[in-house]
Amino acid sequence: MFKLTNILFIVTFIKTLHLRSGNAxxxxxxxxxxxCCARCIxxxxxxxxxxxxxxxxxxDLCDCDWFIFGPGVPICLSEFDSVLTxxxxxxxxxxxxxxxYVFDGDSFTKVLTVEYGPKQGMIKFFMTNINNSTxxxxxxxxxxxxxxxxxxxxxxxxxxxxGSIIWNNFIINKIENxxxxxxxxxxxxxxxxxxxxxxxxxxxxxxxxxxxxxxxLTPFRWISNNINQQITGKVVExxxxxxxxxxxxxxxxxxxxxxxxxxxxxxxxxxxxxVTVSFRLWLPISLFIITLIFMKRKSYN
Length: 301
Description:
301 residues, alpha+beta, Endonuclease - Pi-scei, Chain A, domain 1, four-stranded antiparallel sheet, 23% strand
């Protein structure tokens, strides 16, 4: 029997779909956020203070860190971060594709999919200068992206401070905001090592949520290895993109913790997967069914 929270959750999810589909005025919640946030930050990431003040009335609905130039995916590393690939070369994350093998700090792991932010604009990042006994480096990620500290514990980028010690004994010596395009590989292991030594997760928010996401993708990793990696990777990209969009709307009503419980997460994630694939594939599937019916009727004639 469903708990009351699960029933309320389903109702809110349907309401979220309605918000995304628009109302009588042709204006959706996401469109409002999109316009508000996009016009407050120009193509170079420069804020317009007056514009932001005018948008303050929407602050309970919009988060401009998530909606810069359109509702992108808040699971972000900078496209200019780099990773070691199986051919022995350092490659920018923007050049990584589905099926590549990248170094995760322990071994080379396959890329299940690559998540991108909005292509028409930039996302707000934490750009952090780091150094250890051997070299200096820079890491750039969104504030809610996960990385490993010096005791192999997952923390968000927003938790690190100047003087913090992270993976490979890198010391944080400078933190500033920057605006860049994003590209984030989701690997089979769930993590990767970027910029010559910084171990980061493929996921966001917290360790519990990251594990739920990684476990949910288990069958997709099998399909990628045994059936078709390109189709699987694209489907996972769709699911992850929509998952984060719907997550934000649901968490507005029930709080972020609701979708971080195992029972609710495994109710939410499959629904998103079905809705996502259905919405994107309804036309080719419809054409395929019509073609089969036509061929079957023709064979009878």
